[in-house]
Amino acid sequence: MGFEFWMFLSLVYVSHFHFHGLSLAEKAPYYSFVHEAAMAPEVSFYDYIIIGGGTAGCPLAATLSESANVLVLERGGSPYENPSKPDKGNFFPNLLDVSPSSYAQEFTSEDGVYNARARVLGGGSVINAGFYSRAEPEFLKQTGLNEALVNYSYQWVEKKIAFEPSMLQWQSALRDGLLEAGVLPNNGFTFDHIYGTKIGGTIFDGDDHRHTAADLLEYANPYRIKVYLHATVEKIIFETKVFSRTRAQGVVFEDELGKKHWALLTKDYKSEVILSAGALGSPQLLMLSGIGPSQQLKKFGIKVVMDQPLVGQGLVDNPLNFLLVPSPSPVELSLVSFVGITRFGSYIEACSGISFTPSWSRSVAKALAAILNQTEQSSTKLFQEGILNPESLLDTRIRGGIIFEKVKDPISSGYLELRNMNPRDNPKVTFNYFQAPEDLMKCVHGVKIAIDAVYSKSFSNFRYEILSAKALLELIVNLPLNQRPRHLTSAFSLEKFCMDTVMTIWHYHGGCRLGKVVDRDYKVLGVEALRIVDGSTFTSSPGTNPQATVMMLGR
Question: Signal peptide location in the record (predicted)?
Fold first, then answer.
């Protein structure tokens, strides 16, 4: 039941993440090089082997294919395979889908917070909120990337998949409410990270079709790239010689039928294995391959190639907390279109008009009825209206919206450990939300700003006067958002509210941090021919939403 509600909130956060599919055969000229892993030869050779065809892996592969032979191994399927599956009417069923072919693999952290990990060509860009915004200048300086090359790479991505969103009534009213609440100035539309309130980019076009990192493979040389789907990498193969550094030689991967394949590097001195499996997958695969904390590896009988205690450490998830605000006025179905970038370290974003399952409509109605001393039938009328779209699998939608705040650069960090030796299973993850008091204060301040925006003059047409700020907090406290215990004072104390109702915004990062596990060129320290290019190398989440920077990094 709790997981279903987390899924509902995923819809709440991403509701609009309208997965309008365009079939690979119809739209993408690169269909010829995308195959099922079962079609792979038993042994093959490539200049570059990329593990993970996700948000970083796709632009990386397209770039390398300009001058080298590239293999991409993606553990999931294609977002283009079934043209109707990614459509917006199927968004909620896709999130609830726990079958082996689903786009998202759910997990629950040891902190008791529901989460998900992408498994599809295009990675998180297939299942995220679609918001597109560049990194802050401080992040780029910290990573030491060349500014001119960074800007060129962003533009390379934006030319293919980034758009300006429409700002309709609800989103515009809330944006103006944030300005009233002091999140100034109004920066209009921009991809850049600027303090104040701005309209950001989106990966949804004017027809509400989603464009993903997989679309960047249109840039690839189709004669120099091969992409295998449902290819689960079991481990990286290393060559160890006396008096020389350990060197990556290739990988072992398994297709969907359980058959093993070996992909090996050519003898070209530039040849590399590149991990782009994400903040969970990359440290997990390093450990399964023998690079990681030796005690943990020995526990599972894994041969230690290199003792590296920092693999899996410094794993961070940006906490999210939110308000559900019923509206007396009709609202549009909207995705995240703008963001409030505060100077104290909190981001404010929102969505509206998302769909509820009938069971969760009842859950919200029951909580509202208790707060307002009404019948459930009466409280239901406050926030729900029917859906006339016959293609939708859900029959109701919220008349209102979700306003959430994300903590920027949390100090609290956790770690990742192997659960078993099966690369298909998620590892054990601990994020230690709000372990640092500074993170908690950012959340408290951010929730206060969100409340001020809700009770602003600009937003007055989209809130009920009978619902006080305390009532909105109490509504959230009474919903099973996670597996964490509730304090009796959660609706009275914003500190307790933040701790008790914390969720994920799916921006977790770290585990193979820059300067700890990889060097400035993203090469794994102490090993030849092995590099990591993804969010696991980040010391902080770039910008308000990281996907733009992850794609830029791949380029």
Answer: 1-25
User: Are 144 and 236 part of one and the same domain?
Assistant: yes
Q: Which residues are annotated as a binding site for FAD?
A: 74-75, 120, 233, 506-507, 535, 546-547
Q: Are residues 261 and 305 in the same domain?
A: yes
* Cβ neighbours for 541, distance < 8 A, ≥ 6 positions apart: 316, 318, 408, 409, 507, 509, 535
Q: CATH no. for residue 392?
A: 3.30.410
Whether 463 and 516 share a structural domain? no
Number of domains the chain is built from: 2
Question: Which structural domain range is residue 141 located in?
Answer: 34-165+200-315+507-554
In contact, 71 and 291? CB cutoff 8 Å: no
Does 534 fall in a domain?
yes
Whether residue 8 has pLDDT greater than 60: no
> Residue 2 falls within a domain, yes or no?
no
CB–CB of 348/450 below 8 Å? Answer: yes
d(CA 357, CA 380): 13
> Does residue 454 fall inside a structural domain?
yes
Nearest CA among 541, 22, 48 for reference residue 315: 541
- Looking up tokens 């380029």 gives 555
Backbone phi and psi for residue 7, each to the nearest 5 degrees, phi listed first: -65, -40
Note whether 536 and 279 are within 8 A (CB): yes
**Does the annotation count 445 as an active-site position?**
no
**Domain check: are 233 and 267 in the same one?**
yes
* 415, part of any domain: no
Mean pLDDT of the chain: 90
Task: Name the more confident of 444 and 479.
Answer: 444
Query: Do residues 337 and 166 make contact, with C-beta atoms less than 8 angstroms apart?
Result: yes
- Give the active site residue among 193, 261, 507, 509: 507
Q: Which residues pair with 528 in a beta bridge?
A: 247
Measured CA to CA, the distance from residue 250 to residue 74 in angstroms comes to 15
Condensed to tens digits (0 to 9), the pLDDT of residues 263-299 reads: 999 999 999 999 999 999 999 999 999 999 999 999 9
| pLDDT-wise least confident of 5-14, 134-143, 197-206, 519-528 | 5-14
List the Cα angle 431/432/437 in 5-degree steps. 135
